[in-house]
Automatic annotation (TrEMBL), chain A:
Gene3D superfamilies: 3.30.390.30, FAD/NAD(P)-binding domain. Residues 529-656 form the Mitochondrial apoptosis-inducing factor C-terminal domain. One of its GO terms (biological process) is apoptotic process. The keyword Mitochondrion applies. This is Apoptosis-inducing factor 1, mitochondrial. It is found in: Cytoplasm, Perinuclear region; Mitochondrion inner membrane; Mitochondrion intermembrane space; Nucleus. It comes from Dicentrarchus labrax.
TrEMBL record, chain B:
This is Coiled-coil-helix-coiled-coil-helix domain containing 4a. GO terms for cellular component: mitochondrial intermembrane space. The keyword Cell inner membrane does not apply. GO terms for molecular function: protein-disulfide reductase activity. Residues 17-36, 102-165 are annotated as: Disordered. One of its GO terms (biological process) is mitochondrial respiratory chain complex assembly. Gene3D superfamilies: 1.10.287.2900. PROSITE patterns: CHCH. The gene is MIA40. Keywords: Disulfide bond, Mitochondrion, Oxidoreductase, Protein transport, Redox-active center, Translocation, Transport. It is found in: Mitochondrion intermembrane space. Residues 64-100 form the CHCH domain. Residues 114-125, 138-165 have a biased composition (Low complexity). It comes from the Eukaryota.
Length: 675, 165
């Protein structure tokens, strides 16, 4: 700036001088000859007095120099910027290659030098392709480079054809894990469609129900299911019930069971021939359902409508369903107890858990189930029945007072506990686990009240943690009260994203916001999500139900909110001489029959006693009945206790949401005295 | 006579058969047959086929789904004397497709399924307005086995309906 001022100061007198000279000349010529003033400056420039000419020349020189200087400066700045930009782009593009080279670098070390040489050659090959030299900023390359960082650290698509060639070359050196990896990366993207109209994340009950719904409503729909399990979609309830009662010694392989109507079927919803291979999905004329097993979705880009798998493949979608279910919870004391204890602990949910528990239970003397809910009680009964033959000691422990303590009212929970005990299970109620240690290859469970339980194996059935890993990358809301993805009454999280099954915390128009972990809910919500993905726009309205069987005497179906903390009204059929537990099961056809003679005789004296107050009958026989769960005098939940085929009536009562003055009158609708 | 007792917040009532003989005076809200939220039966209020009906099992969604839909639609809208007589080709296509997947469409039950589906549509299309008023379970009762347990077994075994229907 100072420079400018000094220059200007120097220029100023010169400017003044030159302008004075000009004016003087003009005046002189003006005085002498009026005609020539126009030409005077020009003439003056070329033929003026010597002193004035030199000054003018200097002036011209200065102006010219300034222009030149400015021009040079501008040029150099622009050039420098361009170079800086190019360097930055090169740096970014070199990053994915650095990562790619690092990963193969490790296995490369174990490679024969020949393979190493070819690998090193082939991997750097894409690099010069991807990173154009600064001298030639080729327009297409910067485009792909710019795109690449915004997506992922994947090599730009342009490189894929190049990468394809090297793995083929590198395939020649034998037994190369790097080759496998290189081959994996590219052929995987060949196997998996890069775009699917319907993407279902998770391969369980809800997902399958949605797939079926979509295919029914959208002709020729192409549905891709991505699951991290190795199995095709299957149903879970038999894993803790029917499969254990099977007489077939190969049941762990066939996974077939007998239904209540005597018919046998597999736990898989459909055999493998129902599905089409993922690579054929895009070209399938009539569409179909493809299942991609063993792959986990790790990242979800909601804005870009695409997901990324654990092998870096990307799949874009039009509509997406998240049906990721959940993972079994574990007790903190077990997690902290160390490797030895964890090895002897089973968290039960999948087919592989069933197989391993079946195997383990045959080879040990004592097994303990921690948890008194549905899963815990069902497994306890199933294993308890086995104990009759094998002499296995089955222990069940839980913090509540009785089995299903959080579901059934106390009197019924106590009654159920007695039934579980009669199945051969040692029940330890009001048990809080303080610590678990492994001593002499046996587990020692220390309870807070001082009791010590020694056992060989633990099954922890203490709840389910909904799988919301994708919430972070997808930017989806997670519910703080119930867990799971928060969705509206139509199971929608965002415009193109729905959630169903165990992982969905949804708004139930009748019963309020809730999250349900039952099989029928997975079917109902999966179907609804599928309908809404094909444009139905229907809310959750058809109330799902659930059921449980705990041996030959205890079978119930339930619907709605069945929480033991709510006030209940139970209406039971009075046991007469004719009613016996055995008769009830035969009539109801629960399909699980293991009666013992002793049981029959033990209860009949109680049954035949004439109507009397409860004090005399200290063991009430809750043979069959209906239990209403009330919230603000409205029925929000119903249990059908050993009465079957009445679920539509129960569903209707909950749907109405009316206040009924006399629930006995409502109970009449169920005809509990008949079959 | 019935007796009743209270255990804390829980009330327990024991009733005899005689107690429950008098008809109930509990009031239920009448059903709206055109309620869009309700699960529809096999035939929608508009007269179209509800391909997502649980009673159809997986028939409309499997590999032979499109053939099944064509055949069944043709039959449903058929106005001939002998209903469906012009749909022979469609049914043949469907049968050929199903023969390619014996695992999914076991042969002897497939005959059951087409006849069940026909009888379903026959009985329900005769009374279209009533048909949609019937709870969906009775559609499946007409089609498959006996009961609401079917719907619960529909949930346990969605394909049971498919095999049986």
């Amino acid at each position: 700036m100072l420079k400018c001022r000094t220059v200007w100061k120097k220029l100023a007198p010169l400017a003044r001088a030159s302008s004075n000279v000009c004016r003087q000349n003009v005046r002189r010529t003006g005085l002498t000859n009026g005609r020539i003033p126009a030409h005077v400056p020009a003439a003056h420039m070329s033929t003026g007095p010597a002193g004035g000419g030199r000054e003018n020349q200097l002036y011209i020189l200065l102006v010219g120099a300034t222009f030149l200087g400015g021009g040079v400066y501008a040029y150099r700045t622009v050039k420098g910027d361009q170079q800086r930009y190019q360097e930055r782009i090169d740096e970014i593009s070199s990053r994915p290659h650095r990562v790619a080279t690092q990963v193969p670098a490790a296995p490369i070390l174990s490679e024969p030098p020949a393979a190493e040489a070819t690998e090193k050659e082939t991997v750097p090959e894409p690099e010069p392709e991807a990173a154009p030299s600064p001298e030639e900023p080729s327009p297409p390359a910067p485009d792909t480079e710019v795109v690449a960082p915004s997506e992922t650290t994947e090599p730009p698509p342009a490189d894929e054809p190049v990468l394809e060639a090297p793995p083929e070359e590198a395939a020649e050196p034998p037994a190369a894990p790097v080759v496998e990896e290189g081959v994996d990366i590219v052929p995987a993207s060949l196997k998996v469609p890069s775009h699917t109209p319907y993407l279902l994340i998770g391969g369980g009950t809800a997902s399958f129900a949605a797939a079926r719904s979509i295919r029914a409503r959208d002709p020729g729909a192409k549905v891709l299911i991505v699951t991290d399990e190795p199995d095709l979609p299957y149903m879970r309830p038999p894993l803790s019930k029917e499969l254990w009662f099977s007489d077939d010694p190969t049941v762990t392989e066939t996974l077939r069971f007998k239904q209540w109507n005597g018919k046998e079927r597999s736990i898989y919803f459909q055999p493998a021939s129902f599905y089409i291979p993922p690579e054929e999905l895009e070209s399938a004329e009539n569409g179909g359902v493809a299942v991609l097993t063993g792959r986990k979705v790790v990242h979800m880009d909601v804005r870009g409508n695409k997901v990324k798998l654990d092998n870096d493949t990307e799949i874009s979608y039009d509509k997406c369903l998240i049906a990721t279910g959940g993972m079994p919870r574990n007790l903190q004391v077990i997690e902290r107890a160390g490797e030895e204890v964890m090895e002897k602990t089973t968290l039960f949910r999948k087919i592989e858990d069933f197989k391993s528990l079946d195997k383990v239970s045959r080879n040990i003397n004592s097994i303990t189930i921690i948890g008194g809910g549905f899963l815990g009680s069902e497994l306890a009964c199933a294993l308890g029945r086995r104990s009759n033959e094998s002499g296995l000691e089955v222990i069940q422990m839980y913090p509540e007072k009785g089995n299903m303590g959080k579901v059934l009212p106390e009197y019924l929970s106590n009654w159920t506990t007695e039934k579980v005990k009669s199945e051969g299970v040692k029940v330890i109620s009001e048990a809080l686990v303080k610590s678990v240690t492994c001593k002499d290859d046996k587990l020692e469970i220390q309870l807070k009240d001082g009791r010590l339980v020694k056992t060989d194996h633990i099954v922890a059935a203490v709840g389910l943690e909904p799988n919301v890993d994708l919430a972070k990358s997808a930017g989806l809301e997670v519910d703080s009260d119930f867990g799971g993805f928060r969705v509206n009454a139509e199971l929608q999280a965002r415009s193109n994203i729905w959630v169903a099954g165990d992982a969905a915390c949804f708004y139930d128009i009748r019963l309020g916001r809730r999250r349900v972990e039952h099989h029928d809910h997975a079917v109902v919500s999966g179907r609804l999500a599928g309908e809404n993905m094909t444009g139905a726009n229907k809310p959750y309205w058809h109330q799902s139900m659930f059921w449980s069987d705990l041996g030959p005497d205890v079978g119930y179906e339930a619907i709605g909110i069945v929480d033991s903390s709510l006030p209940t009204v139970g209406v039971f059929a009075k046991a007469t001489a004719k009613d016996t537990p055995k008769a009830a099961t035969e009539k109801s056809g629960t399909g699980i029959r293991s009666e013992s003679e002793t049981e029959d005789t033990a209860t009949s004296p109680v049954a035949s006693s004439t109507p009397a107050p409860a004090m005399v009958q200290h063991k009430d026989d809750y043979g069959k009945g209906v239990i209403f769960y009330l919230r603000d005098k409205v029925v929000v939940g119903i249990i059908l206790w050993n009465v079957f085929n009445r679920m539509p009536i129960a569903r209707k009562i909950i749907k109405d949401g009316e206040e009924h003055a006399d629930l006995n009158e409502v109970a009449k609708l169920f005809n509990i005295h008949e079959d | 006579m019935s007796y009743c007792r209270q255990e804390g917040k829980d009330r327990i009532i024991f009733v005899t058969k005689e107690d429950h003989e008098t008809p109930s005076n509990a009031e239920l809200i009448p059903e709206d047959p055109d309620d869009p939220y309700e699960e529809q039966g096999l035939i929608l209020p508009s007269g179209d086929i509800n391909w997502n009906c649980p009673c159809l099992g997986g028939m409309a969604s499997g590999p032979c789904g499109s053939q099944f839909k064509e055949a069944f639609s043709c039959f449903h809208y058929s106005k001939e004397e002998v209903k469906g007589s012009e749909c022979i080709d469609n049914f043949r296509n469907m049968q050929e497709c199903m023969q390619r997947y014996p695992e999914l469409y076991p042969q002897e039950e497939e005959k059951e399924s087409s006849s069940q589906a026909e009888s379903n549509s026959g009985s329900v299309s005769a009374t279209p307005t009533e048909g949609s008023a019937l709870p969906p379970e009775t559609d499946s009762t007409a089609g498959t086995s006996t009961s609401e347990s079917t719907v619960s077994s529909d949930s346990t075994s969605p394909t049971d309906n498919q095999i049986a229907s």
